[in-house]
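Sequence decides. Our protein:
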Amino acid sequence: MPWPLIRLSLRARLYLVCAVLIALLLTPSYYTLRQLAELRDIAFDLQSRHAVALLEVGRIETSLSELNRLQRDWVSTPSEEARSEMFLTLDVARRGLVRLASLEYHVRADLSQTVVDSLTRLTEALDSLVQERRMSEASAMHLASRPVYERGQEALASLGQAIDAESMTAAVRAQSISERTARTAAAATGLAAGLAVLLALLSVGAITNPLRKLRSAMAAVAGGRFAPPSDLPYGRPDEIGDLTRSFRAMTERLAELDRLKAEFVSIASHELKTPVNVVRGYVDMIEEGSYGGVDEGLAEALRYIREQTEVLRERVDQLLAMSRLEAQGMEVKLAPVALGDLFEEVRRNFAGLAAQKRIVFRVRTDPSLPDMALLDRRRVRDELIGNLLGNAFKFTPAGGGIDVHARGEPGWLIFQIRDTGEGIPPAQLPYIFEKYYQAGRHAGKVGAGLGLAIAREIVDAHGGRITVESREGKGSVFRVELPLSQVERAEGPAPVVRVGEAAVQAGGRSVLPFSRLPRGGPGNRKGNGKGNGRG
């Protein structure tokens, strides 16, 4: 866009575009009106001048015929009445020629004027002869005047033909103007409409393109990414430029606040971990008898203290994991993992808890499950499956069931964790993967709302996806899909993916972080994996 337009405000630019559009659309109309005015003049000329001229020619012809008759009557039977009518008719012919001259037909009327002048002299001579009673001479003169009348009729006929020819020329010219106007108006209208559409599209693009980019940037901010994009029009001097600069300032402030929050959480978690470990150490020492004997009541109290310190340590570990993830410090170290052993470890780790809570707990592996996969064993076992099963045990009552089923599909590891707990309300499903969000009847009472957020980030870091189906009061089914990396290509040191980085090298190959890895799973299964979890 030309720089003078860019310097205008958005409102002024819109007003200018509207004015140009109006001018483009009015130009063909103005041209058409001009041509219609010319056609109107031609029509008026045909209706007034030519029609009146033909009428006058007819009157003159009639006057000449009447004059010839009256002269004959005056010679044969002289009377004052005949004499008066003869001169009156001659005067009518003269006035007709004058009117023809006023209609700009004087050039073509010259011959007729000559004839009328001759007839005027003839009439005066006949009048003199009759007044002197020289009837024979008057009769002879009247007979000799026939060629004059014939020349007059011929002159008037020629004048009529000239008027007809001029009228035809005007009609042809009017038709030509009409056709030319129709063609030109159609072409001009089409061109004006095309230019108007082009200008409108350019104007709409100049306004909507930065707004579309700004909307995408706002969606990124809503998703927790506070880096302002560099392709927004921060330098524009109009309202859009003001809006983008305000947005940049806002995102920079949000990024700073997010950094401060993560830093605070990290520091607070580290500060909390030491006293928790101290409390745990003293509990162990008291239980071991370092401070004397422990009776049954004190042992019961120590068990409660131990349980609560375990809960507190779990919360602190989750806060530390989330702070590392927000600071892009959580590493996913990929290494060959025996999947059968992995799920057997999961079964052993949770078997005691299942017995304690009287919950039927099963871990099943399908024959299609691959032997090996390239995964971060600890994070998948403890922070992915561990968090999912931890939630399942929290919300499944005694007598319920939890089932883990693992299988394989071409290129994918798939496992499902099904429970018969209280389920998740449909209105809360879109948000349960968000940090610090808790769903269900126990929201705010159980956990810190970090478990599923961490689980999702681990899945994303492996290039997979996680979905959930849940019915309130019927339980939930979490489905995890992880791509099977090619173990035989993983040579050298263990590949590392640092969550949030642009790209890193893994085993000599470029590995994308969770934000750029493909989110699709095997086949064409439904679900988009957005925000489905309990927290």
